[in-house]
TrEMBL record:
Reactions catalysed: uridine(38/39/40) in tRNA = pseudouridine(38/39/40) in tRNA
Family matches, as SUPFAM superfamilies: Pseudouridine synthase (SSF55120)
The entry's keywords: Isomerase, tRNA processing
Family per similarity comment: Belongs to the tRNA pseudouridine synthase TruA family.
Keyword hit for Isomerase: yes
Occurrences of domain Pseudouridine synthase I TruA alpha/beta (ranges): 8-102, 146-251
Signal peptide range in chain numbering: none
PANTHER family found in the cross-reference section: PSEUDOURIDYLATE SYNTHASE, TRNA PSEUDOURIDINE SYNTHASE-LIKE 1
Binding of substrate, residues: Y110
One GO MF term: RNA binding
Active site: D52 (nucleophile)
Entry protein name: tRNA pseudouridine synthase A
Length: 258
């Protein structure tokens, strides 16, 4: 048996998230179906984490055990020929037997993209949230810095979270702006969050709160008070799923995509 690790990108617009669900089409279901067509083995994949319905991934990582002797350099092409066009496996490697895509992960980066200005980009509507009015970028950057460090993120996770602890560490939080698109009179804003782990809806609630800061509805300094309160009702709304992307997963020496 070999332990194979793969890195996959997907557009989540047509899927009910990553994890298999009864009577719903998911990324995991598509991957396992392709693996069965390839190996005739009933394989269950383990991912670095779940993504919700409508959420995308640039660098989702998963692993699985297989008895197949297909050479490792042929796996990506073989998988992609059996996957829908909106799912692409772009790296495969044999990893140690104790490698586990979720438990071995050291940190993850998520990116949230919004288009700020008059018109949306027709060709990116599935991957950008459109905000039609101007936002105060400087205030949003100041607020974003409040999230760096170890905090209890109870205020910034869904009440449906089943995690035993809501303490997480954010190693880096940054905001990048693309140049104005003159014909659209709008520009893209990317928010990157790199952390030890993320709670259910955590990134989307952080972004929803940052948007309120950008709109002038709350001050950047208020973020620290919201964190301290540990009360979901005090944070902003949950941002739309389609702007969110799992950007990268880091594993140290065995990082498949570092």
């Amino acid at each position: 048996m070999r332990n194979i690790c793969m890195t996959v990108s997907y557009n989540g617009a047509s899927y009910h998230g990553f994890q298999t669900q009864p009577q719903k089409i998911t990324i995991q279901q598509q991957l396992e179906q392709a693996l069965y067509q390839l190996t005739f083995e009933e394989i269950k994949v383990t991912a670095s984490g779940r993504t919700d319905a409508g959420v995308h991934a640039r660098g989702q990582v998963f692993n699985f055990q297989t008895g197949s002797q297909i050479p490792i350099e042929r796996w990506c092409m073989a998988m992609n020929s059996r996957l829908p066009d909106d799912i692409v496996v772009w790296e495969a490697r044999v990893v140690p037997d104790d490698f586990h895509a979720r438990r071995s992960a050291k940190r993850k980066t998520y990116r949230y993209t919004m288009r700020c200005g008059k018109y949306p980009d027709l060709f990116k509507q599935n991957t950008e949230f459109h905000h039609p009015t101007p936002l105060d970028i400087t205030a949003m950057q100041d607020a974003l810095s409040c999230f760096v460090g170890e905090h209890d993120f109870t205020s910034f996770c869904s009440s449906r979270s089943s995690a035993e602890s809501h303490v997480r560490t954010i190693f880096e939080a940054r905001l990048e702006c693309e140049p104005m698109e003159p014909h659209l009179q709008s520009y893209a804003i990317h928010i990157y969050l790199t952390g030890s782990g993320f709670l259910y809806n955590m990134v989307r609630i952080i972004v929803g709160t940052l948007i309120e800061v950008g709109e002038g509805k709350r001050s950047p300094s208020s973020i620290r008070d919201v964190l301290s309160a540990k009360d979901r009702a005090l944070a902003g709304p949950t941002a739309m799923a389609h702007g969110l992307m799992l950007w990268e997963v880091f594993y140290g020496k065995v990082a498949p995509n570092a």
